[in-house]
């Protein structure tokens, strides 16, 4: 999907989640930190909340449009382990965020057991944005 300046008035006065193959706006949001007394309802997070739960793989076909550059909210992120999943650690580091991995084997086992269990098998790929093979 080509994004043109002419689309800015529609998409860029808020955060919007757009389905790339069709151009359909799936959800919109705007900063509501003050209105909702919330630390997380930045525009893009509000759009995600308004979208609700979606099936695995949906986000791979979507783009987030925002008025402003997304916020880096913390200078330090500490994670218990990353053997089960590696997310955006390198991206965070590239933006100056310190990422500390505690490599805790108890948590690695707890998560791998949960992923292999009945609930994890149903929702893990959805959680990490992967599509079941
Ligand atoms: Zn923000």
Automatic annotation (TrEMBL):
Matching Gene3D superfamilies: Cytidine Deaminase, domain 2
InterPro entries xrefs: CMP_dCMP_dom, Cytidine_deaminase-like
Signal peptide: none
GO molecular function, one term: catalytic activity
Pfam families hit by this protein: dCMP_cyt_deam_1
GO process terms (BP): nucleobase-containing compound metabolic process
Domain CMP/dCMP-type deaminase: 7-73
Transmembrane segments: none
Descriptive protein name: Cytosine deaminase
Organism: Trichosporon asahii var. asahii (strain CBS 8904)
């Amino acid at each position: 999907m080509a994004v043109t300046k002419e689309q800015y008035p529609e998409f860029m006065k808020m955060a919007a989640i757009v389905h790339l193959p069709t151009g359909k706006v799936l959800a919109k949001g705007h900063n509501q930190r003050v209105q909702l007394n919330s630390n997380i309802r930045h525009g893009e997070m509000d759009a995600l909340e308004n979208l609700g739960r979606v099936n695995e793989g949906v986000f791979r076909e979507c783009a987030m449009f925002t008025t402003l550059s997304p916020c880096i909210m913390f200078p330090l992120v500490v994670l218990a382990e990353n053997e089960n999943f590696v997310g955006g650690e390198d991206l965070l580091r590239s933006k100056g965020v310190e990422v500390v991995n505690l490599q805790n084997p108890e948590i690695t086992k707890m998560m791998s057991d949960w992923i292999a269990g009945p609930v994890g098998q149903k929702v893990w790929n959805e959680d990490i944005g992967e599509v079941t093979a």
